[in-house]
Q: What sequence folds into this?
C-alpha cells in the first residue's frame, strides 16, 4: 500500500468520523423527529464514508468490493428506518390534529 | 439432496412472512403453520447440536472469510430453543388474541421479527449481525405500536430511534474491526484481535450499542413505556426475546471476540450498571400502577442481573467453576425469557377480561381466571427467583461463586432485588383473593391461557428441576 | 444561557469519543490489515457469475445479507402500513409538472431496466434500479396520482414481498437440490442472480414508492397502471 | 428400579400430584376432589408406615436428583426425618377430613385444597431434605403454598394477615438463603449428616461459621416464631381454622423448629455448637420466647390468638431441647415436635368447632360450652392439660425429659424456665376450662348453627379433634411402648450422639 | 497529479463537512432537509472519486433522492401544521 493511498484512507476516514460526531451531536441536542433522523442519517453517512475510505486502494487499483457491498446494504437499511420513523411521526401528528 | 436446518430456521419465517403478506385476510392459518415449521426447524437445530456438536453452514459455499456462515454452538442452540418455544407460544396466543384488522398487520411483522431472532442467534458474521439487529429493531418497533394508542406510537418511535442509535454505534465498531483486521467472521476476528486501543474502542462501541438495545440502566428509559403499551403478545416478545437477543450478542462478543482484551474495569462497569438496574427497576416495578408497566420495569431489573454476570465471569479463572457460572447466567436468561413471556401473556388475558390493567382494581378479573393467575404466579416465582424455578438455581450458583470470590456485595444487591421482586409480584397476586365467589373453571380460553401457563410451568418446573440438559448443550463449544 | 448538558458535557464527551475513534482508526488503517478481503473477493469474482465485483459480493458471496436486507425493507413498509392509511390525496399537480412527469416516468422505468441489466458487469444493479423505479413512483405521486402508479392492494402486496420470496425460495431450492443454501451452480449463477435481482428490483421499487405514500394503499385504485 | 431410591420421592408425590390435579377440577366436583384428597392422604400414610419399619431396621432410603452440576436435590429418610414425616402425614389425613367438613359450603375449594396438598408436600419435603439446598427449596415452597391459604378468605383482614405473613417469611427465607449460600461457598455442598459436618472445619473460618449460624437461625427463627421474629403468627390467625391448625401444629412453625434441630445436630454438630457457645445463645433465645409467648397468651381474649401465642411459647421447647447438651434433653425436644403437634391441632380443631357451631371466638364467650358441646370440650380439655404438662397427657413426657436433661447438663436455669412456663400455661388454660365446664351457659350463643344430626356437630368436624386428643393421651400413657414418639426420639438421640 | 488530487480531495471534503455543519445547524427544517439532500449528492460525488460508482449511484438515488423526498414531505407537513396551527415546527416536540 502506498503512502498516497494510506493518506487518502486516513483523510476520508477521518472526515467520516467527523460526520459521525456531527450526527451524534445533532441527535443528542435536537428534539424534533426530522432533525433526529437527519442526524442519524448523517451518522450513517459518516460510517459509510469510513468504509468507503478503507475500501479505496488507489486511483488506478480496483477497490475492495466487500465494504462497498456493506455500504449498499447499509444505505437501504437506513432509508427503511427513515421511512418507518417518518411514518411514526406522521401518525403522531395525525393524532394531534 | 440435503436439508440444512440452520438456514431453514431463518428462511422459513421469511417465506411465512411472504405468505401472510400476500393473503392478509387469512393470515392466521399460514402464520401459525409458519410458526410451527420455524419452531420445529430451530428445535431440530438444538437437538442436532445436543447430539452431534457444533453445526456450521457456509452459505453460498464460499466459506469464510469471503462468505457468510451460520453456526450453532451450545450457547446459540440454548437461546434458539428458548426463543422458539416462547415464540411458538406467543404465536398460538396471538392466534386467539388479535382480531381481523390487527391480525393482518401482526403476522407478517411477527414472522420477520422471528426470522431476525433466529438469524441473530445463528450468525457468525459481524456485519450480518448488524442486519439482523436492524430487522429486529424495525419489526419490533412496528409491532409495539400495533395498539395504535398515542402512548404506544410515541414510545415505540423512541424505541426505534434509540435502537437506530445503538445499531449505528455497533456498526461503527464493525467498521473499525474490519479496518483493523480485515475480516468480519467472529472466529477470524477473535484470532486476529489483540489488546490495544482498537480492540477497546471497538468493544466499547459494539457492546455500548448493544446495552442501549438491552436497556441496561441508565439506558433503560425507553423500555417501560414501549413494552407496557404494546399489545400483550408483542410485549411478551419484546421483553422476553428482543432485549435478550441484544444481551446474547453482548455475551457472545464478550466471550468469543473480545476474550483476549477483557479487563476488570469494563466488567465492573457493566456489573455496577446491572446492580443499579436491579435496584432501580425493581423499585419502579413495585411502584407501578399498571400490571404491564410492572412487568416492563421488572424486565429492566432482570436484565440487570444478567449484566452482574460479567464481573463474576472475569474474576473466575477458566475451568469448571467458570463453566458453571456461564451456564448459570444462560439459565437465568432462559428462565427469564420464558417467565416474562408467560407473565405478559397472562397479563394480557387479565387486561382483556378486566378491560384495564390497573393492579389495584384487578380483584374480580384475577379470581375469575385461575389459569391466567396461576401463570402469573408461576412466572412470578421464576422472576423472584424462588424454588423450584430455574432462576433459583441460577442465582444460587452465581451467588455461591460471588461468595467464593469474596465479592459479597453482589450478593447484597441480588438479595435486595429478590426481595423487591417478591414484593411486586405478590402485590399483584394478592389481588387474586377476593370475597366474591366466582365460578371456578381452571381454563376458560385454552388458546390464550394455556400458552401462558405452559411458559410459566417450563420456567418454574422445567428449568428448575431439570437444568442438567443445559450443561450438556453448553458442552458443545460454549465452555472452555 | 449555558445549559450544562448541552453546552459542556455533550461537547466534551464528543471530543473524547472523537479522539478515541480517530486514534483507533489511525492505528487500524496503518496497522497490519493489509489488503483485507479485497484480494480474496476480487480473485473469486470470475466464479461468481457476474463481473461487477460489488454485485458479486451482494448477490453471491454475501447474498444472505442482501436477503435479510430485503426483509428489513419489507418490515419497514409493513410497519408503515400498520400505522394507518395513506394521507388522503395530494393536491392536483400543475399541468406543467404533469406533462413533465408523463415524459419522465417512462424514461426512469427504462433506465431502471437498463441499470438492472448492466449491474452484472458495470456499476448498477438491483438497488439502483429499484431506486429509480421508486423515484418514478414518487414522481407520479407528486404529480397527483393517488397511488403513485402502484397496483391495487392485492398485487402491491405480492410485489413488495416478491423479492424476499424469490430470494429465499431460490436459496432453499438450491439447498434441497443443489450444494447448499444460496450456493449457485456456476453455470446457472448468472441467471439465478438476474432472476433474484429482477424480483428484488420490483420489490424495492414498489416498496420505496409505497413508503413514500406513507400509509396503507387505498382499497380501490384510481389508476390502473403499474410502476 | 430400586424401590429404596424412590420411596422418599413417592411419599412427596403422593400429596403433590393430587394437589396439582385438584387445581384443575371445577368447583362443583366435590366427590372427585374428596376422592383425590383421601387417596393421596391414605396412600401417603401407607408409604410412611412402610418407611418407618424400614428405617427402624436400618434401611437407607435416599432419592438423589441432580438439579444442576453441584446442586443435588436429596430426599433421605433418617430417623429424625421419619419422625416429622410421620407427624405431618398423620395430621394431614386428619386435617383433610376436618377441612372437608369445615369448608363444606364455602367458595374456591379447588384452590384451597390444591394449595393445602402442596403445603403438606412441602412439609414432607422439608422433613426428608438430605441437604441444606433441598431444605431451602422446600422451605421456600412452603412459604409459597401457605400464602394463598392465609389469604384464602379474601377479606381485608386476610389480605393484611397474608401480607404480614409473607413479609416475615420472605425475609426469613432470604436470610436462610444467604446463610446457606455462604456456608456452601465456605465448605462445599452441605449434606445433613448425623453428628454434623463442621467438626473438622479449619480454625480460620470459625468466626465466619458462627456468623453463618446466626444468619441461619434468624432465617429459621421466623417460621419457628422465635421472639422477636414471631410477629406474623398472631396475624396469620385470620386463616380458616384447618389452616391455622396445620400452620401451628405441622407445617410452618414446625418447619422452622425442625430446621433449627437439623442445623444444630446435622450441620454444625452438637459438639461443635456446644464448644462455640452457639447452644447457649439458642437456649437463651428459646427461653425468652417461651416466657414471652406465655405472657402474651395470658392477655389475649381471642381464643385463636391465645392459642397462637401459646404456639409461640410451646414450639420453642423444641429449640430449647436442642440447646441443651446431652441426649436426654434432645429426646425431650424431639418428642415435643410430635406431642405439641398432636395437642395443638386438637385445640385448633376445637376452636374451629366452637366458632362454627356457636359463633364463639373469645375466651369470655366460652361460659358453659362444655355442656353444650361435650365431646369437643373433652378433646379441648385433653389438649389444654397436655400443654400445661399434666400427666399422663403427652406434654408431660416432653417436659419431664427436658427437665431431666437440663438437670443432667447442670442447667438449672432451664428448669426454672420450665416451671415458670408451666405455671403460665396453667394460668391461661385453666380459666378456659373453668368457664367451659363450671360456668352456666348464656341464654343466647353469639351465632348458633344447630347441627341436624345426632352429634353436637358434623362428624367430619368432631372426629378429628377426638382422634388427635386420644392420640395425645396415648402418646403419654403408653410412652414406653415401641414405636411411640418417645421411643423414636430416643432412637434419634442415640444416633446423633453416636451411643 | 498527486498535488492536484490532494487539492481536489481537500476541496471536496471541506465542502462536504461544511454542508454537514450547515445541515445540522440550520434553523429551518425544510432548509435542513434540502441541505441534507445536497450533502447526499456531494457524498455521492466523493464516493465516485473514491472509485465506488455503485455506491455513488445508490447514495444519489436512495440516500439523497428517496430519503430526501420522504423528509421533504415530512417537512412540508410540518410547515403546513405550523401555518395552520401557529406552532413553530422546530419546537414541535419529538418524543
A:
Amino acid at each position: 500500500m502506498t503512502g498516497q493511498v494510506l493518506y487518502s484512507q486516513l483523510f476520508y476516514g477521518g472526515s467520516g468520523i467527523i460526520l459521525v460526531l456531527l450526527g451524534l451531536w445533532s441527535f443528542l441536542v435536537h428534539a424534533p423527529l426530522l432533525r433526529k433522523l437527519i442526524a442519524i442519517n448523517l451518522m450513517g453517512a459518516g460510517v459509510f464514508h469510513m468504509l468507503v475510505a478503507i475500501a479505496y486502494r488507489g486511483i488506478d487499483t480496483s477497490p475492495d468490493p466487500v465494504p462497498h457491498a456493506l455500504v449498499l446494504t447499509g444505505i437501504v437499511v437506513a432509508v427503511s428506518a427513515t421511512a418507518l420513523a417518518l411514518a411514526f411521526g406522521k401518525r403522531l401528528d395525525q393524532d394531534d390534529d | 439432496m440435503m436439508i440444512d436446518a440452520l438456514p431453514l430456521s431463518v428462511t422459513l419465517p421469511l417465506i411465512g412472512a411472504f405468505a401472510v403478506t400476500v393473503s392478509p385476510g387469512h393470515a392466521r392459518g399460514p402464520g401459525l403453520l409458519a410458526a410451527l415449521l420455524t419452531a420445529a426447524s430451530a428445535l431440530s437445530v438444538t437437538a442436532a447440536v445436543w447430539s452431534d456438536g457444533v453445526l456450521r453452514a457456509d452459505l453460498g459455499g464460499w466459506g469464510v472469510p469471503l462468505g457468510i456462515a451460520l453456526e450453532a454452538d451450545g450457547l446459540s442452540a440454548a437461546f434458539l430453543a428458548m426463543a422458539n418455544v416462547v415464540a411458538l407460544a406467543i404465536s398460538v396466543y396471538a392466534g386467539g388474541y388479535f382480531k381481523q384488522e390487527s391480525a393482518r398487520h401482526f403476522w407478517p411483522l411477527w414472522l420477520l421479527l422471528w426470522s431476525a431472532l433466529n438469524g441473530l442467534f445463528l450468525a457468525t458474521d459481524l456485519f450480518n449481525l448488524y442486519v439482523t439487529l436492524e430487522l429486529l429493531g424495525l419489526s419490533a418497533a412496528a409491532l409495539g405500536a400495533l395498539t395504535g394508542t398515542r402512548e404506544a406510537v410515541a414510545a415505540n418511535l423512541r424505541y426505534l430511534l434509540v435502537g437506530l442509535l445503538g445499531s449505528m454505534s455497533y456498526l461503527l465498531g464493525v467498521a473499525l474491526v474490519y479496518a483493523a483486521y480485515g475480516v468480519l467472521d467472529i472466529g477470524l476476528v477473535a484470532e486476529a484481535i489483540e489488546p490495544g486501543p482498537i480492540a477497546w474502542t471497538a468493544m466499547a462501541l459494539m457492546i455500548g450499542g448493544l446495552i442501549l438495545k438491552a436497556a441496561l440502566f441508565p439506558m433503560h428509559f425507553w423500555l417501560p413505556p414501549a413494552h407496557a403499551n404494546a399489545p400483550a403478545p408483542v410485549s411478551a416478545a419484546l421483553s422476553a426475546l428482543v432485549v435478550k437477543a441484544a444481551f446474547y450478542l453482548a455475551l457472545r462478543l464478550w466471550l468469543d471476540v473480545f476474550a483476549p482484551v477483557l479487563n476488570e474495569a469494563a466488567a465492573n462497569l457493566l456489573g455496577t450498571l446491572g446492580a443499579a438496574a436491579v435496584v432501580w427497576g425493581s423499585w419502579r416495578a413495585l411502584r407501578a400502577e399498571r400490571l404491564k408497566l410492572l412487568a416492563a420495569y421488572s424486565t429492566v431489573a432482570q436484565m440487570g442481573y444478567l449484566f452482574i454476570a460479567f464481573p463474576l465471569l472475569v474474576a473466575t479463572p477458566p475451568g469448571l467453576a467458570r463453566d458453571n457460572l456461564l451456564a448459570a447466567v444462560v439459565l437465568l436468561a432462559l428462565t427469564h425469557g420464558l417467565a416474562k413471556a408467560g407473565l405478559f401473556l397472562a397479563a394480557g388475558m387479565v387486561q382483556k377480561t378486566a378491560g384495564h390493567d390497573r393492579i389495584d382494581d384487578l380483584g374480580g378479573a384475577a379470581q375469575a381466571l385461575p389459569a391466567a393467575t396461576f401463570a402469573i404466579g408461576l412466572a412470578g416465582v421464576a422472576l423472584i427467583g424462588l424454588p423450584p424455578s430455574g432462576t433459583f438455581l441460577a442465582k444460587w450458583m452465581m451467588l455461591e461463586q460471588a461468595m467464593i470470590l469474596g465479592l459479597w456485595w453482589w450478593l447484597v444487591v441480588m438479595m435486595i432485588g429478590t426481595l423487591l421482586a417478591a414484593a411486586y409480584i405478590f402485590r399483584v397476586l394478592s389481588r387474586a383473593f377476593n370475597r366474591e365467589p366466582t365460578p371456578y373453571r381452571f381454563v376458560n380460553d385454552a388458546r390464550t391461557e394455556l400458552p401462558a401457563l405452559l411458559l410459566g410451568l417450563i420456567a418454574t418446573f422445567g428449568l428448575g428441576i431439570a437444568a442438567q440438559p443445559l450443561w450438556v448443550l453448553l458442552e458443545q463449544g460454549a465452555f472452555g | 444561557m449555558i445549559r450544562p448538558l448541552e453546552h459542556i458535557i455533550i461537547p466534551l464527551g464528543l471530543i473524547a469519543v472523537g479522539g478515541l475513534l480517530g486514534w483507533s482508526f489511525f492505528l487500524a488503517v496503518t496497522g497490519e490489515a493489509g489488503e483485507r478481503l479485497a484480494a480474496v473477493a476480487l480473485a473469486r469474482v470470475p466464479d461468481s457469475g457476474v463481473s461487477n465485483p460489488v454485485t458479486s459480493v451482494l448477490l453471491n458471496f454475501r447474498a444472505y445479507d442482501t436477503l435479510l436486507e430485503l426483509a428489513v425493507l419489507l418490515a419497514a413498509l409493513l410497519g408503515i402500513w400498520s400505522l394507518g392509511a395513506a394521507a388522503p390525496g395530494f393536491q392536483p399537480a400543475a399541468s406543467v409538472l404533469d406533462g413533465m412527469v408523463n415524459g419522465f416516468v417512462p424514461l426512469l422505468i427504462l433506465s431502471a431496466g437498463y441499470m438492472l441489466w448492466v449491474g452484472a458487469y458495470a456499476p448498477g444493479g438491483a438497488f439502483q434500479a429499484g431506486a429509480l423505479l421508486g423515484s418514478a413512483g414518487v414522481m407520479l405521486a407528486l404529480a397527483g396520482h393517488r397511488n403513485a402508479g402502484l397496483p391495487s392492494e392485492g398485487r402491491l402486496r405480492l410485489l413488495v414481498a416478491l423479492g424476499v420470496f424469490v430470494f429465499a425460495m431460490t436459496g432453499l431450492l438450491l439447498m434441497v437440490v443443489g450444494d447448499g443454501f444460496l450456493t449457485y451452480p456456476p453455470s446457472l449463477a448468472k441467471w439465478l442472480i438476474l432472476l433474484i435481482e429482477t424480483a428484488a428490483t420490483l420489490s424495492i421499487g414498489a416498496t420505496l414508492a409505497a413508503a413514500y405514500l406513507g400509509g396503507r394503499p387505498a382499497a380501490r385504485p384510481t389508476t390502473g397502471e403499474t410502476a | 428400579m430400586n424401590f429404596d431410591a424412590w420411596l422418599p420421592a413417592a411419599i412427596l408425590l403422593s400429596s403433590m400430584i393430587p394437589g396439582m390435579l385438584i387445581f384443575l377440577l371445577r368447583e362443583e366436583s366435590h366427590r372427585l376432589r374428596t376422592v383425590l384428597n383421601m387417596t393421596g392422604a391414605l396412600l401417603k400414610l401407607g408409604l410412611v408406615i412402610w418407611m418407618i419399619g424400614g428405617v427402624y431396621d436400618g434401611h437407607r432410603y435416599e432419592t438423589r436428583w441432580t438439579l444442576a452440576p453441584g446442586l443435588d436435590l436429596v430426599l433421605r429418610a433418617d430417623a429424625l426425618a421419619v419422625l416429622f414425616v410421620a407427624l405431618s402425614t398423620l395430621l394431614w389425613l386428619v386435617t383433610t377430613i376436618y377441612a372437608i367438613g369445615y369448608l363444606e359450603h364455602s367458595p374456591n375449594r379447588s384452590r384451597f385444597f390444591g394449595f393445602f396438598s402442596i403445603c403438606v408436600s412441602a412439609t414432607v419435603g422439608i422433613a426428608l431434605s438430605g441437604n441444606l439446598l433441598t431444605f431451602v427449596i422446600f422451605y421456600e415452597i412452603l412459604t409459597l403454598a401457605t400464602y394463598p391459604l392465609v389469604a384464602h378468605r379474601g377479606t381485608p383482614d386476610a389480605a393484611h394477615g397474608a401480607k404480614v405473613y409473607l413479609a416475615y417469611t420472605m425475609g426469613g427465607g432470604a436470610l436462610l438463603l444467604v446463610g446457606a449460600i455462604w456456608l456452601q461457598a465456605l465448605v462445599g455442598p452441605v449434606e445433613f449428616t448425623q453428628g454434623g459436618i463442621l467438626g473438622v472445619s479449619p480454625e480460620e473460618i470459625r468466626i465466619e461459621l458462627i456468623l453463618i449460624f446466626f444468619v441461619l437461625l434468624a432465617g429459621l427463627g421466623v417460621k419457628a416464631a422465635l421472639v422477636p421474629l414471631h410477629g406474623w403468627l398472631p396475624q396469620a390467625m385470620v386463616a380458616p381454622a384447618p389452616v391455622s391448625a396445620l400452620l401451628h401444629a405441622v407445617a410452618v412453625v414446625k418447619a422452622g423448629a425442625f430446621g433449627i434441630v437439623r442445623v444444630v445436630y446435622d450441620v454444625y454438630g452438637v459438639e461443635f455448637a456446644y464448644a462455640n457457645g452457639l447452644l447457649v445463645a439458642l437456649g437463651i433465645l428459646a427461653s425468652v420466647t417461651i416466657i414471652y409467648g406465655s405472657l402474651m397468651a395470658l392477655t389475649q381474649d381471642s381464643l385463636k390468638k391465645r392459642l397462637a401465642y401459646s404456639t409461640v411459647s410451646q414450639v420453642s421447647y423444641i429449640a430449647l431441647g436442642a440447646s441443651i447438651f446431652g441426649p436426654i434433653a434432645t429426646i425431650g425436644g424431639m418428642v415435643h415436635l410430635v406431642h405439641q403437634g398432636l395437642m395443638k391441632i386438637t385445640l385448633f380443631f376445637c376452636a374451629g368447632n366452637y366458632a362454627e357451631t356457636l359463633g364463639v371466638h373469645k375466651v369470655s364467650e366460652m361460659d358453659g360450652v362444655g355442656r353444650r358441646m361435650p365431646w369437643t370440650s373433652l378433646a379441648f380439655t385433653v389438649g389444654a392439660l397436655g400443654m400445661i404438662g399434666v400427666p399422663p397427657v403427652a406434654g408431660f413426657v416432653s417436659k419431664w425429659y427436658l427437665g431431666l436433661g437440663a438437670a443432667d447438663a447442670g442447667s438449672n436455669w432451664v428448669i426454672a424456665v420450665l416451671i415458670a412456663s408451666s405455671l403460665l400455661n396453667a394460668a391461661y388454660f385453666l380459666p378456659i376450662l373453668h368457664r367451659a365446664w363450671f360456668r352456666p351457659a348464656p341464654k343466647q350463643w353469639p351465632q348458633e348453627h344447630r347441627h341436624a344430626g345426632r352429634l353436637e356437630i358434623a362428624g367430619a368436624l368432631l372426629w378429628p379433634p377426638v382422634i388427635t386428643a386420644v392420640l395425645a393421651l396415648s402418646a403419654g400413657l403408653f410412652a414406653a411402648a415401641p414405636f411411640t414418639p418417645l421411643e423414636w426420639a430416643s432412637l434419634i438421640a442415640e444416633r446423633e450422639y453416636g451411643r | 497529479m498527486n498535488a492536484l488530487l490532494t487539492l481536489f480531495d481537500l476541496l471536496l471534503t471541506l465542502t462536504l463537512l461544511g454542508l454537514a455543519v450547515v445541515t445540522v445547524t440550520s434553523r429551518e427544517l425544510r432548509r435542513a432537509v434540502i441541505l441534507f439532500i445536497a450533502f447526499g449528492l456531494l457524498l455521492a460525488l466523493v464516493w465516485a472519486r473514491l472509485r465506488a460508482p455503485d455506491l455513488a449511484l445508490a447514495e444519489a438515488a436512495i440516500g439523497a433522492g428517496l430519503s430526501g423526498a420522504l423528509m421533504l414531505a415530512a417537512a412540508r407537513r410540518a410547515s403546513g401544521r405550523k401555518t395552520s396551527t401557529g406552532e413553530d415546527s422546530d419546537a414541535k416536540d419529538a418524543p
